[in-house]
Every structure is written in C-alpha cells, then in structure tokens.
ABC transmembrane type-1 domain-containing protein
Amino acid sequence: MRKDYSSKGVKILQYAVLIFFAILMFFPIFWIFSSSLKTLNGISEFPPKIFPTQPQWENYIEVLKRSDALTYLKNSLILLVGNTVGTLLSSSIVAYPLARMEFKGKGVIFGMILATMMVPTVTLVIPQFILFRNLGWLDSFLPMIVPSFFAFPYNVFLFRQFFKTIPKSIDESAMLDGCTKLQVFTKVLVPLAKPIFITVGVLSAIFWWNELFQPLIFIDSENLKPLTVGALTAFKLEGGQNQTAWNLQMAFAMIMAIPPMVLYMFASKHLVAGIKTSGMKD
C-alpha cells in the first residue's frame, strides 16, 4: 500500500511540474494575444488586466490592411524559400559522400566541418560585411541566400547521421542495376530520407521566418525588409518620440507566430523521427 501511495505521489508531483512549466511556456504567447486585443491606453494601464473586457479585434484588421505588410511578407518568404532550398540541396550533397563513400581524409574533413560549429556567428559579421560590400551585395537578399548554398555544418551533420542509418546494401543493389552514384543519391537515398529533409526544411524555414539579426545588418531599403525588421519600425506613432503602438505590434507578433506553430503541428511527426534517427551513434 505504501508503495502505491508513494508511486501516486510521484506521478502527481511529475504532472504538477509538467503543468507548471507548460503554463510558464504558454503564458508569454497568451500575454501577446491578450495585449493585441487591448487599446493603446489599455495596454499600459496598471494594474494590468489579464484579458480586456472589450477585445479590439479591429487591431488585427488594421495590421493586415497596412500596405507594407504584404511587402514584408513577400520578403520574408523570399528569404525562407531561398535558404531552405539552398540548405537542403547543399547540406544533403555534402553529407552524401561523408556517409556513403570511403576515401582518405574523410574523418578529417568531417571533423573540420564540425569544428566550424564552434565559431560564434557574431565574430563573422564584420568579415562578412566587408566581403559582401566589396562584392556589391549589400542591401539585397544575396548576403543571406547565397551562403545557404554552401552547406551549414549542423545540417550536414544531421543528413550524414541519417544517411548512415540506411543499409549500404541498397546502394550496391542499385549500382548493380546500372545506377550511377548520383542516381543512387537522387533516386534511392532522397526518397528514403524524407524525414530528415522535412526536419531540416522545417528548422530552416522557422529560423528564417524569425531571423532579425542578418536582415538588420545587410538590408537598408524599406522595400526589402522582412517581417521581423518591419515590425521594429512599422508601428511607431506619428509625432511621438520613439513611441510605439504596442497593441498593433502585439497583433503583428501574434500573426507572425501562427505559421511556425501550424508548420510544427503538421510536421512534428517527421521532426521527431528525423532528429531521433540523426542522433543515433555510428
């Protein structure tokens, strides 16, 4: 009996801790949603109300009616699609020989690729800025899209680990049937590697949907700014000293949060499968 009570007590404690952290994680999203339905005066009143008595749904209509909202959306989609396509192509192609072929120095090359992950991204900003300025790429999408076609180390690692879980006998059978190594990759491995392609694709899409730092550094023109950068300046009040219409900005933030959440809901099964398989030891 004591064991039953103790096991029930442990389960209750576990559920209580899980519920607490679930509320802790969900509360910022709820607060953004609540703030997006308040008036400008209501959002700054004290003590703050958990939820407005008269929700201002017209805040969302006002945000969507802005002429620059579609421009920001178009630019975000260009960055998202360009980087996702680039990283899927380049990372999978680089990972293929590292996982399926034998050649001298393979371990050293893979180790060097992993070593680049240790370099803080912020330390590369100045060299990249100088390089892109000399190439005449500043104030365009090129500084953010072109590097994705040269493979990102973490994505190479994920692809390599997944490819190594596929039996090499499949490659040998395909080559006996007359396939070249390229055909083995495109016609055999790629269809079998659907979970990792979805995983890397979703991670890349969410990253570039939310990316602020690089567009802020490389883009100046208003008509090239993505949603993240546009949100910083789009809701400044006219005649105010750096005053912001926070209710509209929260509505904008809520709209921006919806696509990643929906994408994750539909792709969560493949995400778990891809990361789980890629994390397996050699």
Remarks:
- The CA atoms of residues 129 and 218 lie 8 Å apart.
- The chain has a mean pLDDT of 86.
